[in-house]
Amino acid sequence: MSVIDSPQIIAREVETPPGLFRRLIRQRQAKVGIGLAAAVVLLALLGPLLLPWATGYTSTEFAGRPFQPDGMLGTDNLGRDVLSRFLGGGLRLLMYAALATLLGMALGVLVGMTAAYRGGRVDGIIMRSNDVLLALPQLVFALLAITVLGPQGWVLVTVIGITHAPRIARVTRSATVNVITEDFIRAAEMYAVPKWKILVQDVLPNITGPLMVELGLRMTYSIGAVASLSFLGLGMQPPTADWGLMINENRIALVVQPWGVLLPVLAIAVLTVGTNLITDSLARAAANSNTGASK
Amino acid sequence: MTSIILRRLATSVLILLAVSVLVFVATLLLPGDPAQAILGQQATPERLAALREQMNLNDPAWQRYLSWLGGLLTGDFGVSAASGGPVADLLGERIAASLVLLTAASIISIPAGLLVGTYSALRHGHTGDHVVTGTSLVLAALPEFVIGIALVTLFSTTVFPILPSVTMAPPGEAVWNYPLQLVLPVMTLVLMVTPYIARMMRATMLEVLDSGYVEMARLKGVPERQVILRHALPHALSPVAQVVAIQLAWMAGGVVVVEFLFRYPGIGQALVDAVANRDVQVVQALSILVAAVYIVVNLLADAVGILTNPKLRTGGAR
């Protein structure tokens, strides 16, 4: 916006409007974000494969006495190798966060599009139930579910997914409402195309911008939510190696064994900052496309 | 205008009722029942039956719901399965302690957010603006405990060991008698919500500064200070009220993590303990409490919105 494009560039852009991904990747901020997030994701994916080859220990094996400077980064409260636990502790967090986000997106998009397309009473009922779900903060809702069902993996994924859904549904609904008044939807209706087909083939491709932004945002929050619950001791359970749980276990000894806390904190911080930078760039890329979206 | 606010109030009450049903239904899913939870695995069938009778567990679910709801309204929150005492006694002081934390954080973060956002909008495109946008983008991404631990590492253990990292008021004494212990928890909450308020303030302020009436005021030769304070600021505030409300409500959730991190004796810590002990009555009471706070805060924000925005005052808004 600050730089005035030369006429040639403008002409080229008018001819072939670049896709969302191209507009995203063009921003420096997005490149930084992708770099940061990719580094942590690679670490989380490859970390477990490096064990015990790189450190000599698996992530739950006892390496010695508590808080000793054994191995590369010392041992934790139960005498397990900190580096091994760090390498092994990211994968599950990422998997749970990704699954919860996908579940939330699937539910939210489905509900939001239905509400917008059906309108009337269905819309009213869906949006009012949304208000009810939104009145409980995500974390409190998750804690309620964990009290009743216990801290299992599927409970974490499901409850975080469900608490994302109303927020995603709101965004989907308002994006869909803007699209369904367009002529090509009317045309499809006149050809008696089934409703679900209209939603999938005609509406969905036209609301990918806001949905991608929402995907990024919800992924950032999912990572935070899963990690927070484990940090509270109510998510992943010992002896699982997990970054959130590691922080919980080692924080009493922050002075003696800082790596046990700082490494996972740093990894989570880099990851969430990365995803948030991508999301912010996506939002800009999507906002720029609003002018030429009617194809 | 009063009728709109009244209608909003009625909706809020309905939502709160629906939340209470949701919370109550959650306990029906619990394997075993409260009597079993209080007496433990070794309880004799006779004692279980007696306690079930005493707690009215043999009544149909809707009757229990009504009596539970009636209890909530009269301040009777039930009996804690873990401690055996009334939930209300357990929570009284803790609610006060949490309110201290939340109030202090709001008093600091709301003006800070508005100021930073306005500054950023006025310096649009300059270094100051970039610094604010960048910092808020990073802070907004971080989970609460990451911010908290970073602060502890900075101010308590390594770099400047000047502030206590845990709250340790002697039993029976109020937390606010030790203001130094409040600094880090409050700072964490402030850093958590200020970025969102600042970002929203910047966005609406930019929009307002770009508007016709601000340009008009400037063309008339109104001093820049007055343009911003009298013409721009009031219009930029009302959309921000919504975001402030969402943030305050979010803080009610985030406070759980912050209290746990700093071992602060508030409702968040109580909630985590209750979940770990599967103390359903306490979890129920706290969930309802948090939901009520959320709904009231949102209602206030809507009221501010309706009062400051003439378009919402008349007829079928929302």
UniProtKB/TrEMBL annotation, chain A:
Q: Does the keyword Transport apply?
A: yes
**Into which family does the record put it?**
Belongs to the binding-protein-dependent transport system permease family.
Q: Which InterPro entries match?
A: BP-dependent_transpt_permease (IPR050366), MetI-like (IPR000515), MetI-like_sf (IPR035906)
Give the keywords, sorted.
Cell membrane, Membrane, Transmembrane, Transmembrane helix, Transport
Bilayer-crossing regions: 32-51, 93-111, 132-150, 254-274
Under Pfam families, the record lists: BPD_transp_1
Write the protein's name: ABC transporter permease
Q: Name one GO cellular component term.
A: plasma membrane
Q: According to its record, how does it sit in the membrane? A: Multi-pass membrane protein
Localization per record: Cell membrane
| Keyword GTP-binding set for record | no
Q: Name one GO biological process term.
A: transmembrane transport
Domain ABC transmembrane type-1 stretches: 90-274
Automatic annotation (TrEMBL), chain B:
Q: Which InterPro entries match?
A: BPD_transp_1_N (IPR045621), MetI-like (IPR000515), MetI-like_sf (IPR035906)
User: Pfam families this protein is in?
Assistant: BPD_transp_1, BPD_transp_1_N
User: How does this protein sit in the membrane?
Assistant: Multi-pass membrane protein
Give the matching SUPFAM superfamilies.
MetI-like
Q: Which UniProt keywords apply?
A: Cell membrane, Membrane, Transmembrane, Transmembrane helix, Transport
Q: Where is the ABC transmembrane type-1 domain?
A: 95-301
Provide the transmembrane region boundaries: 12-30, 95-116, 137-163, 175-198, 240-262, 282-308
According to its UniProt entry, the protein's GO biological process terms are:
transmembrane transport
Primary localization: membrane
Q: Entry's CDD domains?
A: TM_PBP2 (cd06261)
Question: Which interval of the chain is the signal sequence?
Answer: none
| Compartments reported by the entry | Cell membrane
One annotated Gene Ontology cellular component of this protein: plasma membrane
Its family remark reads: Belongs to the binding-protein-dependent transport system permease family.
In Swiss-Prot or TrEMBL terms, this protein is called ABC transporter permease
What is the source species? Arthrobacter mobilis
